[in-house]
Write a structure and sequence with these properties.
2 helices, Alpha-D-Glucose-1,6-Bisphosphate, Chain A, domain 4, alpha+beta, single chain, globular
Length: 167
């Protein structure tokens, strides 16, 4: 079973900035933690990050739900330049309410120069039917808020023209 969460906004920057910033900038400046979700500290095994078929290991600070250290693997599934990213978070190192993977999508469309529509979607996959009410609450109440915070961090990095960490 899976749950779909989608948010949309408009960025006032170049199409390239709106497209590249969320996946090619320093992820620790995007996933800064919220509630029980720890902040990302760094990544390893990321030499080819940004290209389809490649992955990176993600590390996070200690929190009430995480011991800190290696927490998951991010994978690039698809990249259509200046239009679409599809990525996956899996290999969770702590119990995640029965979730097995999160599949994210970041879509950009130029409405006019420096006015970019951004659609940010996550599909949360779980395998335990009995946990569905908790999965639903997590997705609709917590994860959607977390996505909005991450999107706002991406917006600020795009506006500041934060250097890309990856190609």
């Amino acid at each position: 079973m899976h749950l779909l969460i989608k948010i949309s906004t408009t960025f006032s920057c170049s199409l390239e900035r709106a497209f590249k910033t969320p996946l090619l900038c320093d992820v620790s400046k995007i996933h800064t933690g919220y509630g029980l979700m720890p902040s990302v500290t760094h990544c390893t095994d990321d030499e080819n990050w940004g290209q389809p078929g490649y992955s990176k290991k993600v590390y996070a600070a200690k929190s009430l739900t995480q011991k800190g250290g290696f927490v998951s693997v991010d994978r690039i599934l698809e990249r259509v330049e200046n239009k679409y990213w599809k990525f996956q978070v899996d290999e969770f190192q702590s119990w995640m309410l029965g979730f097995t993977k999160f599949v994210g999508e970041w879509e950009t469309a130029e409405i006019e120069p420096n006015k970019i529509l951004v659609d940010y979607t996550y599909t949360l996959h779980a395998n335990t039917v009995l946990l569905y009410p908790f999965n639903w609450l997590f997705a609709k109440l917590f994860w959607k808020t977390y996505m909005k915070r991450a999107m706002e961090n991406v917006r600020q990095l795009a506006y500041k023209e934060e250097p890309y960490q990856y190609a």
